[in-house]
Amino acid sequence: MGNGPLREYLINVAENVKLKSGSYIKTFHMKSCPKYYNDVGFLLAPSRTEAQGVAMCKALACGTPTIATKVDGIPGFVIHGYNDILVKPGPVELRRVILNVVKMSTKDYCKMTQNTVN
Question: Does the pTM exceed 0.70?
Answer without folding.
Answer: yes
